[in-house]
Structure formats: structure tokens, C-alpha cells
Amino acid sequence: MWPRRIETLLVFGAMFLFGCALLDVHAQRSDAGHGVQRFMEYCAGCHGADARGGDKAPALVSASNTTNLSDSELFRIVHDGTKGGMPPFAQIGDANIRAVVQFLRSLEDSAASKSASGEATVTGDVDAGRTLYFGKAQCSTCHLMQGKGGFIARNLTAYGRDRTGDEILHAITAPDTPLVPSSQVVTVTTKTGQNLTGVLRNEDNFTLALQTEDGRYHLLARSDVRDVRYTEHSLMPQDYSTRLSQKELNDIVSFLIVASRSPRPDKGEGR
Amino acid sequence: MTCRAREAVLPMSKRRSTRMRFVRRLLIVLVAVCLLLVMHAGSGYGQTEQPATHSAGDHAKAPDDSNGLINVQQSDLLQRQVTDNWVSYNGDYSGARYSSLTQITPANVGRLAAQWVFHPRVVAPLEVTPVVVAGIMFVTSANDAYALDAKTGKVLWHYVRAISQGLVGDPAQHHNRGVAILGTRVYMETDNAHLLCLDARSGHLIWEVPYATGNQNYGATSAPLVVKNKVVVGISGGDRGVRGFLAAFDAETGEEKWRFWTIPGPGEKGNESWPGDSYLHGGGTTWMPGTYDPDLNTLYWGTGNPAPDYDGAVRPGDDLYTSCLLALDPDTGTLKWYFQFSPHDLYDYDAVQTPVIVNTRFKGEPSKLIVTANRNGFLYILDRTNGKFLFAKPFMNTQNWAKGLDEKGRPIPAGLTPDENGVRVCPANGGATNWYSPSYDSAIHMFYFRSLEVCAVIQTKPKSFAAGGTYYSTGTQSVEEIGKGYINAFDLDTLDFAWRDLQIGRNKVWSGVMSTATGLVAYGDDAHNFVILDGHTGKPLWHFNVGQLIHASPMSYAISGKQYFAIAAGSDVFSFALP
């Protein structure tokens, strides 16, 4: 009996050590790309995919409560959480936390270079941009702007804050890079044969919440779903770079920046 | 047979050599290692790929069986029977908090089971009553609003803004009691008294109006009430020297349509109680949703205590319109009538408890009534067409502040005037009941409410109003550690109690009651239990330990024929249904 126990211990010990070694190998990866991945995995759900604030937590880009902290202070916050409600992330491992901190620093660098040149430069025709936004470009069909417009896509009222014109242009002409998870369009086939295409607002192992363009939520149990096709795209048109001229694009960008400067008491956003 | 077979095999295995065993286990290790590698490579480290389908067992009856489309019409708000949807703080305009759903009965309620728990980002005990429309639940906590799948508690959207700094009193605790809804929009109040209009489909902010200015002690904790095309909001700050008001805003544009000041200004009737500029600090706040009778086109809304709370010397007379029920024209904000429960209140007896609209026979005559249990220890029945006092019933055995009521319902004071030494007053400043909801079962004419028997020593010391501070003019001392709490059933046919269920515990709970068409009464008790009892007898039928003190009132809703009860408890929202 005794030798077999030793043997069993050896077997499970070996498995455990190998598992730890695997984790450790990955924990050593702390390049910037790694930080992006870790951020998307652990932080984006609350702080937003672009770290500009999400539905549960504040913006981290150029926020003084981030930039004023040392790396070790930031590490400690991620590791231990905050009294304000952020949970501790000690369980993801020190190397992953360091990678996230590194990623945040890289964001600050880009934000700093932006602020060094003052407010985002506006070179287009703001009035023409507004006309395009609510007219030909059909932005307002989906996006809310200062209380006017659609609901299916992001509220753009404060979008132009803390963003450069180039970043906004990129978001218009190369949408879905990165794809915000709650904006992804999916097609669901239910076991009764119903086909639904809409925006994936929430999903887990057991449920799936889809919102179709009429605003209706389809709240499905996975056990009732035959197939889900993830399009890896949002509803944002992919062809603005050809549908609109460079001038028109610039006008819309300019409008978004200027509109975001109009005084609003709060930046709170849904979703 | 299986066991026998295994027993037969074991001796065989024992005969195998230790070498064979070692080789076998080595193989297991290798296979395990390979599996780990394969799983790891497949996961694409850091990616959270979703499985295309998942066979794990959720047991919803049919796919996509909730409507999911939010578009609340006036007819929905005017519903006379509360069934699947719970469209406002109290479920309907009557304030009865009575569900006509019948799936859960006294016979099967024992099988009720928790369905889900939702934990919002929160800084204070939740006081919200969820609103449910088309299978979507709307809840608020602090300055947050959420849309949830009411079947699972999963978040569909979340509107968030930072809590406000520099507030005083209740709003500084960031309590919020929920949303109002019309069309595709939800409305909520922020802690610093801004009215927000959000798109109910996305949670995006459409407009907001800061609706209380000129006194930093203003704040808001209530749920708005939509009446026709207006959103009516009240205000908090009555213990901190604000001037109370009720205001209505255009639901589409946010434009202010009317404002009724509960403390009359110079030249107005009742201003004689408010010398100098004291009307600016007179209290009379409106911190709970009112009720509405569409047939009489009348809005009923309770007002809070006068300020300063305990020093009446600086506010001679009745102190209109504090501790009152107001009947207002919802189109114009014009006062139709008022009834003052506690004239010249000295004990913090707000009258914001829900004024329930009841249509029944009163002493044999079909009557349009308001029934309300007041913080001052009396249950009142009023004629809601004109505010005439019809009946009162004291419900606190130790009540000592009034010798009784006269024929017009005006209290006959016992002469207990707080001074620097203090006077013992029953009920205590916290009231013989409070904002937690009452309920009226129209089928059996039973009015349910929670009450509390507790006294306090109230002292006073003159003080001036100061921004950023309270305006009680001193305070209170508890004289009993443990009060006696009751869940009461008052029978409108006999005008007497059908039963009074004495609650065990310290009675620190702040949970209201609701009732259903199957004769169930739901509430939270002092031991963190969500309880359902038999409304006919008061006998408890079922309870569930939610593990935290309940500061909210329950509601019920249904999706595809399945009835749920929901209640906010401590920091979480719970939902229950039959298996």
C-alpha cells in the first residue's frame, strides 16, 4: 500500500508541477501585446475596450487618478482592488498585472502626446459635419448625439473627448478594430427554426441576449439555441471610406470633436 | 449485480504486477500532459471564445418567449389589473401594490425557489422597487440604472454616473427607489436631484434637468411618477431645511410644466407660519411617489415634516403644507384640497406614506377613498373627491402625542412639547409606520401595512439653518432598544383589524408589503427573511433567508405565464418563482 501512495503522489505532483510550469511560461510574457490581451480579458468589461471608461468603471486614459500613480501603486490597486468597488485581481498573477500596468502606461504616453498638442485639432467644417451626421451619412440612425438619434449603437455625445481626429477617422473607416463585445452582431438559429440577427448584448454559458434593430431584446436560453454565428462585426457600415469623401469624413470628425466639447454635466453612458 | 462483479474483479487486479501498474500510471500522466497542451493551444491563451452552442441546462419553456420590446403606452400605465408588467414604483396608479397574478397560491407557495440574484454596483442598501416591462426589469442603485433580463437577472445595459459629493442626509447615502417609464424611455432621479431621461432600449442619456437649485441641502431619493405626458418628481431634504415642492416636466422634452411649493411664500395662504424667509427652509418635502386617480384627474401626494423638525417656536401655526396629503391637478399643479394629518408637527411625522386609492363600500355606500396608515400612529380613511375626513383608527397601543382626533380628523394634542430636557413621545420620530409600502387587496377589502411600537425622547435646542448641515434643532434618544413590530391586516368591511402579526426581532427592517389575487402577502422580516404569508389569517407559508437587511418593498411580475416575486435586499435584488 505505501509504495502505491507514493506513486500516486508522484503522478499528481508531476501533473501539478507541469501545470504550474505552463502558467509560469505564460506569466513571463509581458510585452505590450500581452498587456492588451490581459486588459481585454480582465479590465475591458468594466473600463471599456478602449480604457476610456465603461459601464461599471471610470476611464483610465489620461485620468489623473491613473497617471499620478507609480507603477507599484497601480500594481497594488489591480492586485488588491479598491474600496470603491473594484475587485482584486491577485489571482491573475503578478506577471499579468505587470503587463496590464505596462499597457496602461502605453496609453498614457499616447494621451500625453495628444495633450501636448492641445485639444484635438479641428480642420473640417463642423456645420457640414453636423448636416452629414444627421443626413447623408446616417450616423444618427443608430447613434445618439446630445439626446437625438438612435439607440442601437454607442452614444456619441462625449465620444470626441480625449480622442484625436485620426483615432475618430480610424473608427469610422476601419470599424470593429477592436470590436466591442456588446456591439457584435450575431445570427442565432433556435431549435424551433427561428433565425434572429442582432447585437449581442450579453451571453454566458446558459443564456444569450440579443437586441434586434427594432429595439427588441431576445432573451434566449442556450438550450433552446441550435446555432450561433459570430460575425466579428458590429452594425457599423464597413464602407465609409468609399461612401464619403475625405472632406466629408473630416467634417464629421470635426463635428464629433466640437460636439463633445459642449457643456454636459456628466459623461455617464448606458451599456 | 454490478457491485458483485466489481468485487470479483478486484482480486484479479491485485494480482497484477507493480511494474504493470507503474507503466499504466505513467501513460496516464503522459495523456494528461498531452491533454493539457492541446487544451491550452486550443484556447489561444487570453482569448475567451464562446462556444457556438451550449447544452447546459437552462429550462426556459420556449425560445424567445418574452416580448422584449419596450414601448409603454398610456393604456399600460392606466392598467386596472397588475399582471405581467409592473410599470411603476407601486405597480399601478392606485398605490395598492396588488398583483392580479394567480400562479403562486397558498397551496404551492411552499415550493417557491430563488431564481437569480443580481448584485449591482452599489454604495448603500437598495431601496428600489423593480419595474418590469415585457420581460425587462429596470432597477436603480445610487446613480446607476440597469436593464436586466427579468428571467435571469443578466444585465442588458447599465447607465452609470458618479455619485455626488457634498450632499447631506439621505441623498448623501445615495438611496434610490427606482424608475418611471413611458414609451421607450425611463426616468430616474439622481442623488443631487437631476431628472434623467434615458432610452429604455440602450440606457443612453437623452436629457437631464437639474430640478432643485438655490439650496445645497436638496437631494432626491424617490422614483418619479409619469402622469399623462408629464414626469412628476418630488424632493428630499426635509430634515435639512429645504423648501419642499412637487414639479412636473414634459416627458418628451424635459421642459418644466409646473411646480407646486409645499411651503407657501410671502402673500400666499399659510405663509403666516413662516416669518421672514423661513419659508425657504420649511421642509414639507415630497420624497415618495404619489398616486393618481385618472377618473378624478387628481394626483395625491404626501408631504414631509416641517423644518426645523423639533423646534416649533420658529414656525407658529399649522405649518402648511407639511405633514399633509395634497390633491393636485396633474395638468396644472393647482391644489384641489389638502388634508393635514399632523398640524404643527414637532416629532418628525412625515406624511409621505403611500396614499392608497380604494374604491369600496364605506359604511354601506360605494365610495372613492384614500386609505393611508400615517407615521403619527393613525390609519386614515378620507373621501378622495374632496379630502373630507371619514374615519381613523389608532394602530399604536402606546401612542401618547395626541389625545385623539376631533370630528374633522384634526389631532387633539397631548401637549408634549420638546424642550432642552426632552419629552418622551410615542411613536418615536421614526414613526409608527414609515415609507415602506402598504398594500390593498381589493378582492377581500384588506389593507396591509407594517407598523412599529417604539418611543423616543425628543429634545430641542434652537438652531439656525446652515447650508451643508441638518436642521433638526437637536435630536432624539431611543428609550427602547427593541420595538414591537407588526404586520397588520385592516379590514375595510369591519373597519377593524382582521389580524396583527407580531414580529420577532429588533425591528430594524425597512421592508414594505405587497399582496396578490391568491391571498398572499409578501414582505421582508427582521431576520433577513423574505416571507410570504396567508393574507386571510396572517399565517406564514414560506420564507427565504436573503442574508441581509431588507430596505425595500416587494413586487411581482410574469414572463410567459411564469410568475415571479422580486425584492431588493441589502445590496442585491432577488427573484423567486415556482420550479
End-to-end distance of chain A, in Å?
A: 60 Å
At CATH level 3, the topology of the largest domain in chain A is Cytochrome Bc1 Complex, Chain D, domain 2
Largest sheet of chain B: 5 strands, mixed
Give the beta-strand count of chain B: 38
- Could you name the CATH class of the largest domain in chain A? Mainly Alpha
* SSE sequence of chain A, one letter per element: HHHHHHEEHEEEEEHH
Number of DSSP-assigned strands of chain A: 7
The name of the CATH topology of chain B is Methanol Dehydrogenase, Chain A
How many discrete structural domains of chain B? 1
Beta-strand content of chain A: 5-15%
Helix content of chain B: under 10%
What is the general shape of chain B? globular
Strands of the biggest beta sheet of chain A: in what spatial order? 6-5-4-3-7
Describe the structure.
The complex is a heterodimer of chains A (271) and B (579). Chain A is α+β, with helices and mostly antiparallel strands and 271 residues long. Chain A has helices at 2-28, 32-47, 64-67, 71-80, 94-116, 126-134, 165-173, 240-243, 246-261, and strands at residues 144-145, 148-149, 185-190, 195-203, 207-211, 217-221, 225-230. Chain A has a five-stranded antiparallel β-sheet with strand order 6-5-4-3-7, with no helix packed on it. A two-stranded antiparallel ribbon of chain A has the order 1-2. Chain A starts with a helix and ends in a 10-residue tail after the last helix. Mean pLDDT of chain B is 89; it is low at 1-20 and 26-65. Chain B contains three helices and 38 strands. Chain B has a five-stranded mixed β-sheet, with no helix packed on it. Chain B has a single domain, classed as Methanol Dehydrogenase, Chain A. Classes of the chains: A alpha+beta (271), B mainly beta (579). Chains A and B meet through helix 1, helix 2, strand 4, strand 5 and strand 6 of A and helix 2, strand 6, strand 9 and strand 10 of B.
